[in-house]
Amino acid sequence: MASVEQLAAPAAPALSMARSPSLAEQAADAIVTGVSAGALKPGQRLVETELAGLLQMSRVPLREALKILETQGIVESIPHRGTRVATFDETRITQICEARVALERLALRDAAIVYPRNPGLLERLDQIIAVMERAADRLEWIDVSKADLSFHREICRASGNTIVQTLWETLARHVFIIFGHEIRDERDAEAMGPQHRRLRSYLAAGESEKLHAEIEHHIMRLRTRK
């Protein structure tokens, strides 16, 4: 279990704040980043006073953040035992990935109509891929994961399907944690750019059938790799 000193160490800024609409959302993002980076372990008790000190905020927004994460199933509040990080076992990870495939197929179906007509949206995907590739070159997996999520978030937004967007955002923090649990190496770093550029090229051409087939392999690739 990581100590407060380990979480706060400059060499592992796993609880650094991210830009979010509110302090509570910032704290929730920071905690999720800590879980993804391994600074916060499954089953670890989350002590409000310690987290508030690390994140340099009062306990009021932090308590709200923990409630948000509890609703999303990322932390668990157990009577007389406090709040702890939830366990992401193989069954749960597979279920999250399968739900993500279903949602992104819907998003890609609609986005395949939008992207051929909007070069500016494609440029945004290109910018995200460039960020992803630079982070992959440095094997900075947290930054790779953030760029990966940004890429897929952009597609969901472009689809115009607000229900898919809402449901996808509900899964996004789970997906970010799963990214942190995946074992990645130089092979994966080299593949990040080409994998996402392939999706981008299918979107530019409006090839919805290829996108439908590709997205399952794209999302499940590390779970099926031997």
- What CATH calls the topology of the largest domain is Four Helix Bundle (Hemerythrin (Met), subunit A)
Major β-sheet strand ordering: 1-3-2
- Under CATH at level 1, the class of the largest domain stands as Mainly Alpha
Please tell me what the overall shape is: globular
Order of helices and strands: HHEHHEEHHHHHH
CATH architecture of the largest domain: Up-down Bundle
Rg over alpha carbons? 18 Å
Number of domains: 2
Number of strands: 3
Determine the CATH superfamily of the largest domain. GntR ligand-binding domain-like
What percent of the residues sit in helical stretches (DSSP H or I)?
over 70%
Mean pLDDT: 88
Point out poorly predicted stretches: 1-20
Largest sheet descriptor = 3 strands, antiparallel
> What is the CA-CA span between the terminal residues?
29 Å
Structural class by SSE content: mainly alpha
Total helical elements = 10
Strand fraction equals under 5%
